[in-house]
Design goal:
By secondary structure, the chain is of the alpha+beta class. It has three domains: 2-95; 130-197 and 260-278, Cytochrome Bc1 Complex, Chain D, domain 2, CATH 1.10.760; 206-256, SH3 type barrels (Roll). Helices cover 45% and strands 13% of the residues. The chain has twelve helices and seven strands. The strands form two sheets. The protein has a five-stranded antiparallel sheet with strand order 6-5-4-3-7, with no helix packed on it. Helix 3 runs parallel beside helix 5, helix 4 (49-58) packs parallel to helix 6 and helix 6 (78-89) packs parallel to helix 8 (112-122).
Length: 286
């Protein structure tokens, strides 16, 4: 498995054009979610609308483990963003499967053609004013006080809304900080971090936007950088390596990678269940 993963990633970094059909096969058919994610990340290096169209068509078949990498590929270039938005508009892909961070990225995209379509699909976004933030915190606190939560019932909500980026005990991703040692018993701190993720961005996790000379737009945080390479941790959990000669621009976004609105759509009981899971002192096992 390690060798297959290494070779899959290398094909993307070296841009071996003849490997595209094989990478597409791995991305859509391989039994390993890890290999599928790596193949999708490797395919992102190729400026090929046919590849993006095939991935957009395959979106419904991808599991929750693989889907973030597919969204990462589809949001890396303007033409593929438009393919994704068209698939969502026509119902070929479900809006309910789009993570909040991907919706936010589309809504704030530099290209007006992408932004306008995304706002039509997802609605407007933006930082909440202080009075609105206070109200939202009060609403959630009230819901949490009115009854007990079930951490086992809260686990699916964590997996759907948080696990793509954050790890808690042994479950979740590695894009954002590990939540296990976080002050999860402090409800005030936890609520502020979730409802206003830009209030305090942990050192090392400030988002940057990288524009490459071949037209890609990558959002993530810098894992490592020296005179020869930049390693970026992107929303799909992959860590592409870019040579300085490939980079057109690198700009801090001034935002956290974590979007607002992660609690939207949850009932009071679902909120209690999610926070019971988030504040659990030990791993949940059934």
């Amino acid at each position: 498995m390690d060798d297959r993963l290494l070779y899959t990633r290398a094909l993307g970094e070296l841009r071996v054009g003849s490997a595209v059909p094989s990478l597409l096969s791995l991305a859509t058919n391989d039994a390993s979610p890890t290999i599928r994610r790596a193949a999708l990340a490797a395919l992102g290096a190729f400026e090929d609308n046919a590849v993006a169209a095939r991935i957009a068509e395959a979106l419904p078949q991808f599991s929750e483990e693989v889907r973030p990498a597919a969204f990462g590929l589809l949001t890396s270039r303007v033409p593929s963003c438009l393919l994704l938005l068209r698939a969502l508009q026509t119902g070929k892909a479900s809006l309910s499967t789009v993570p909040a961070e991907i919706a936010e990225r589309l809504r704030t995209h530099p290209a007006a053609s992408v932004r306008s379509r995304a706002v039509t699909l997802f609605g407007n976004s933006g930082a909440s004013p202080p009075t609105e933030l206070t109200r939202r915190i009060s609403v959630v606190e009230s819901a949490l006080r009115t009854g007990p939560g079930n951490p086992y019932a809260g686990e699916p909500h964590f997996m759907q809304r948080c696990a793509a980026c954050h790890k808690l005990f042994f479950k979740g991703g590695h894009v954002g900080p590990d939540l296990t040692p976080y002050q999860r018993d402090n409800l005030g701190t936890l609520l502020l971090s979730i409802l206003n993720p830009n209030a305090e961005i942990r050192e090392g996790y400030a988002a940057v936007e990288v524009e490459t000379k071949d037209g890609r737009s990558l959002t993530g945080f810098v894992v490592d950088r020296d005179a020869n390479a930049l390693v970026l941790r992107t929303l799909d959990g992959e860590s592409p390596t870019l040579r300085p000669s490939e980079i057109n621009s690198l700009q801090p976004t001034g935002r956290s990678l974590m979007p607002e609105g992660l609690l939207d759509g949850l009932s009071d009981q679902q909120l209690r269940d999610l926070f019971a899971y988030l504040r659990s002192s030990q791993p949940m096992t059934k």
